[in-house]
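Folding Task

Wanted — backbone structure
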Amino acid sequence: MIHITQIKLPLNHTKEDLKKKISKLLRLSGQPFQYQIVRQSLDARHKDEKMFVYTVDVKIDGEKKLIKKVGNANITLIDAKPYRFPTGGSVPLKNRPVIIGSGPAGIFCAWYLARAGFAPVVYERGEEADKRKETVDQFWKNGVLDPDSNVQFGEGGAGTFSDGKLNTLVKDPVGRNHEVLKRFVQAGANEEILYQQKPHLGTDVLIHIVQHLRHEIEEMGGEFHFRSKLTGLYYEGDQLTGVQINGETRIDTEVCVLAIGHSARDTFFMLHEHALQMEPKAFAVGVRIEHPQKMINMDLYGEEENEYLGAGAYKVTHTASNGRGVYSFCMCPGGYVVNASTEKEQLAINGMSYQARDGVNANSALIVTVDPADFPEDGPLGGIAFQRGIERAAYQAGQGKVPVQIFQDFRENRPSTALGEILPQIKGEYTLANVRAILPDEIGNSIEEGVLAFGAKMPGFDRPDAVLSGVESRTSSPVRIVRDGELEGSIRGIYPCGEGAGYAGGITSAAMDGIRVAEAISKKFVKF
């Protein structure tokens, strides 16, 4: 297969233009060929001459001769190897594997185990995606929280109510990343996600995709139970023998995948009581900041709107004078800030976009890393105590509503009494407050300095009426459940998996870890 990089075309090019460019680069004179786009990125360094840049793979007769003839460093010969799911386990299973959680880690682990003949059973504390959406919509409308079915818990996991970003920095020599994207496309996503530099799905699309994946798993022999929370473990010595669901039902199993998500605090405490080995983990906290999307587009593209590019997305970082790094996270073009709370009298927020990304504002988390030295308690659950402290302060600052503050008042550490030109786009009720007072001083100072630094790079980022809301505290898991080289925990048969276990950071990496755990199970056990 011929691999071609650095193919540059104007934004308004057609598919035929790309095909002609490939033909010209290979010096073809009418020979038939097939090509597949591997990657599409944007070169916007020159705002008056923005270009799409492609990498493609080409199939054509006489590939070796062609490579010698063209003599181009951007044109090489590769041997593409398809992903292969491993088999060959020898340990017999008496019972079906159990998967706790139906976020991306759990659902992808279940899909691959089901296809391999293991007939997994998935237990999810929240509701099915469509029912969950109704519950979440009601929470945003009336403020009545369901602790088990909300923005964090339920079919699809926390990523269902997000921008649905699918890019990842995880190294992937065996092809799990492409497997994840391919599964999404087969479940209804646009095939462009297979090659876009920054692919995304949007909440409205994700809800249907996760349900489609569930139905496929059920057709392959898997099983799902909703409103079913893990509440205990059964084991003999260090070997798992079963799990407890909803405080009463014992399910016998020798294999349990813990894909519980980063917000399953009650589950973390239960696992700690059973002496499952865990350790505290660094994560990041901060605020959400909102700007007009047209302003962000102008900063990035030199124009307020572009039909070929859509809503622009930024990524910014800064090292503050106190030594802490502040950076953007989960940037949502044309999106909304959402109340993402899971515990009563505590308030956490997140960002969300629909597929169209056509909201008035852009929003992003601006966050600062914290580690065990910042936690108020020692031990593996110290990070949870830190999160609960600032979430409780956020709830009190807004009296149950999302607290909001303009940047000028954030700098002065005073409650806002009025908004400027930017109106918050928030799912859930909000109120003017002092967001800065929620945060430890070093966090607030770092964010202020970061916004000013980002304003020097992106005009208007530090405008006085930029809207800040708090508190963003669920960027990743505060806990890592320790696993060995075979991906098992200190209780044999338990497989910590995904973002909640501390081994992923987003939809794609969590799904990839789910596949990896499914591989480990398939290598060890005989299919059920």
